[in-house]
Amino acid sequence: MILAVVFANSVGNILVERFNGVPAEERLHWRSFLVKLGADNLKGVKNEELLVACHKSVYVVYTILGDVSIYVVGKDEYDELGLSEVIFVITSAVKDVCGKPPTERLFLDKYGRICLCLDEIVWKGYLENTEKDRIRRLIRLKPPAEF
Amino acid sequence: MAQPLVKKDDDRDDEAEYSPFLGIEKGAVLQEARVFNDPQLDPRRCSQVITKLLYLLNQGESFTKVEATEVFFAVTKLFQSRDIGLRRMVYLMIKELSPSADEVIIVTSSLMKDMNSKTDMYRANAIRVLCRITDGTLLTQIERYLKQAIVDKNPVVASAALVSGIHLLQTNPEIVKRWSNEVQEAVQSRAALVQFHALALLHQIRQNDRLAVSKLVTSLTRGTVRSPLAQCLLIRYTSQVIRESGSTQTGDRPFYDFLEGCLRHKAEMVIFEAARAITELNGVTSRELTPAITVLQLFLSSSKPVLRFAAVRTLNKVAMTHPMAVTNCNIDMESLISDQNRSIATLAITTLLKTGNESSVDRLMKQITNFMSDIADEFKIVVVEAIRSLCLKFPLKYRSLMNFLSNILREEGGFEYKKAIVDSIVILIRDIPDAKESGLLHLCEFIEDCEFTYLSTQILHFLGIEGPKTSDPSKYIRYIYNRVHLENATVRASAVSTLAKFGALVDSLKPRIFVLLRRCLFDSDDEVRDRATLYINTLGGDGSVVETDKDVKDFLFGSLDLPLVNLETSLKTYEPSEEPFDINSVPKEVKSQPLAEKKAPGKKPTGLGAPPAAPVSTVDAYEKLLSSIPEFANFGKLFKSSAPVELTEAETEYSVNAVKHIFDSNVVFQYNCTNTIPDQLLENVTVIVDSSEAEEFSEVLSKPVRSLPYDTPGQTFVAFEKPEGVPAVGKFSNMLKFIVKEVDPTTGETEDDGVEDEYQLEDLEVVAADYMLKVGVSNFRNAWESMGDDFERVDEYGLGPRESLAEAVSAVINLLGMQPCEGTEAVPNNSRSHTCLLSGVYIGNVRVLARISFGVDGPKDVAMKLAVRSEDEGVSDAIHEIVASG
To answer: What is the ipTM of this complex?
Structure first.
C-alpha cells in the first residue's frame, strides 16, 4: 500500500498531500516527520536523486525536484524499490507537465494538471500508470499512443 | 498552507512572483463554484475553480456535509459540457468528494452513459469513478459492463476495470470472483500493464486455492511476462508456491532455476525481488545463496542510495540466519559505515556486527565510536542491541564492548536510548559472570548523573539484588547513599530500600547501614521516612553484626507470589467495608500463559523492563505456577521446564501446547489449552495420556481445568512418577477430553446440558535433552581445564551421510540440549571440519562440558569425536549413551 504522497515547498509548507489508509489523527505526525526528514537531508541533493529512510516496517523514498520536495511513503509490497518506481513516475510526470523541474510558482500554476497526473499514477494506494507519455495523454482523456 | 512568495518589484521575471492561490479562502471558492450552475458553461473558468477546490482538499481542508453536498450537486451539472479537459477534472472531483450513498444516484446515470460511450477514455474513467463510489447493489447492475471492460481491446479500459476489481474484491468478493474467466484471459494480454493488473487480481481471487496458484505460476514461468512489475509479482507467487510445497530437498528445489534466472533480468527491481526470494527460501543452502549474495554485493557499491539501501537491508536479514554467507561482502559493507544516508550506515554496521568474527570486534568498535556521534537515537538503539548480541556471542570480548556501552551511556541521549543501553548492560551482567563487577560500577557511575527517575530507580533495585552478592559490596554504598542526598523523593525512597537490602544480605555491613538509614528518618518526604522506619524496626539487631531473620527478609524483599494481574483485578472488585482486603483471597492461578512463553524463541529477556528487576526467567514463572498447586508440593525443586511443544495445528478448534516440567523423580506435563470457538464453553477439561510407550513412567495424578471459556487460556496438568535421578525417556499419546456446552453469543448465556467429547492431540516425547539445562560458560578453556580430566570420556562416532556439516552440528546440539559456547554453533561455509564447545547442567545439578570435533569424510559422511568432562563419572557416560542411542 502506498500510504502517502506528499509535496512540499522549499520551506516545508505542504503543497499536495494524499494519504491512503492513514487515520486522520496520524496525518499531522507524518506531515511533520516528512518535512523534518527533508529539511535534514535534502540540502545540496541533486534533482531527482532518491533518498530513502525506513521506520519499522514503513518505508519512505523522497527527492527534490526544482523547488519542490516529493515524499512517498509505503509498506508491504511498496518497499524502497517499489516506492522508487512510484516516485520516478511522479517526478517524470511533473517534469512533463511543467516542462522542467518546477519552481514553486510553476508548480502551483500547473496544480490541476498535477492532481490529474497523481490521480492516474496512484489509485487508492496502488500504483496504476507508469509511463509519462501515457499519463500525459490520459489526463487529456486521449487514448495512449501505443494503442 | 503554502506561503506566497510576494515580491514587490514588478519588473522581475514572471515566474515565482506570487502564488496563484494567494489568499485562497474556502468560503470564497465555494461561492465561485456557483459558476457550475451557469446555463452557459465556461469550461476554463470551471476548471480553475475545480483546481482551487482540489488545492483546498489537498491542503487538508475539509468540507462540511452541507458544503460537500452542494459542491457535489453543482459538479454533476458539468456533465453537460462536452469539453474534454473539464470532464477529466469532473471525474477527479467526484472521486475526491466521495459522495454518500444517497447522493450517488444523481451521477449514476451520467456515469453509466459514459461507461458505454464510444470514446474509450470516457469508458475507462467512468469505470474508475463508478467503482470508487459504488455499493453492492449498483455493482450487480454494472457487473456485465465491467466484465466486458476487462477484455476490452483498449488497455486503459481493461486496466481500469481490473484495478477496480482489485479494490472491489475487498468489499464485494463474491461478485469479483465471478470474473475469473475474463481475468484469466487478460493475463495473456499483450499490453504489459494489463497483464500486471490481471495477474495481481487473478492471484487475489485464487489465493486460497493452492493448486490454482501453482498452475498459474507454472504456466507463467514458462511463458513470457512483459512488465518488470508483473515479473516481480510472479517471483512473489513463485516463492509462495515453493514455501507451500514444503520441499527442502537440495538440488531439485522446484522453480529455483527460474528465480536464479531472474537474477540476470535487466530491471533492477526484478533482480532484487529474485535475490530476496532466494535468501528467504526455507532451509536455503549456501550453494543456492551464493548467486543471490553476489548480485546484492554488486549493488552495495551502487551510486543510487535506494539500491544500496535495498541491498544492505536484504544482506542484513540474511546475516541473521546465515552470517557466514555474508562475510564476503564485509569489505564493501565497511565502506558503507561512512555512507551519507544514516539508514544505510546503521544497517551496514548491524550487519557487520552479526557477521564479524572475534578478531574483528575491536577494529569494528573503533569505527562505530566515530559513527555514533552523528546518528539519531533511533539508529543508536539498533546499534546498541546489535552490540548486546555480539557480546553474548563473544563473551571474551566483554571488556571492550562493556567499555563502549559505558562510554555511550555518558553521552547525550534520550530516554529510550539510555534505557536500551542500561538494559544491555544488565543483560550482560546476568549472562557473563566476569562482566558483573565492572558492569555494576558503570551503572553506579551512570546514576550519579542520571536525569531519568525511572532508570535510576530500576538500577537501584537491580543493585540491591546483585550488589550484595559481589566480592566487595561496600564499594557500592557510597553511590547509593549519594542518591539520598541529591535526588527527588522517588529515587530517594528506592535508594533507602536498596540500602536496606545490603543491610539484610551482608551482615558485616549492617551497623554502617543502620547509621545511614537513621539519617533518612529526617527526610522531607513521607515515603522515604516510612521506608527508613520500617527497615530500621524490622531488620533487627539494632545495628550490630547479626544475621537477618529469614522471615524478615521474605517479608521485606520476597516476591508477592501472586500474578499482579490477579491482584489488580481483586483490588478493583474490592469494595471498601469493615472487612479489610485479604491478600489470601487473590487467586494464584495464572490466567494467561506465562509471559515468557509468548516471546519469540531466542529472544533474550528484556533487561530492566520486566518487573521485578530480578530475571523473571521462564523457569521462575513456571516454578511459581507449580508451587501454587498443592498437589505438586512434594515433588521437590523444579529442575527444568521445556519450551512449549505445539500439540495442535494452527487455527484448529482447540489450541493446545504442552510444557514438560522435570523434577528429580517426577515429570509434570502442563497442557496450555485455548478454546477458539466463541459459542462453546468447555468444562472439566483433562488430557488422557497413554504412556504405554514410556515404560518407566507411571501416572500419579491429573488436574483438570474446571471451565474453559472462549479465548481464555487454561492449564490442565498430568503428573508422572519415574525412577529418581534417572533420565527416563518415552513417548506419550494425548487425548483432550471435556464437556461441551453451547453458549448463546448474543446473551452470553450457557445451556445447562453439556455433551462429552474428545479431541485427538499430537504425541509428546520426553527426550534426553529434557534432562539437560542450557548453562553457558564465558571462558570455555578455563572451565575445561579447571574441571580436570578425572571423569573425561572420549569416543568417536560416525553420523553417516548428512545434508551438510552445519546440519550435523545443529542436530548434535539439539540432541544433547546443551548450550553452545563462544559462537561455535555457527559453521563456516564450505568448511570440512569444525569444533563445537558445549556446556550444560545435567539432572542432579552436575556440570557437564563437551568438546566435539566434526569432520566430513568422503562426499557427505560426517564423523565426530566427542570428549565429555563432568563432575560425575556416571554423567560423562550418560552423555555418550545419549549420542550412541541418538
So the answer is: 0.86
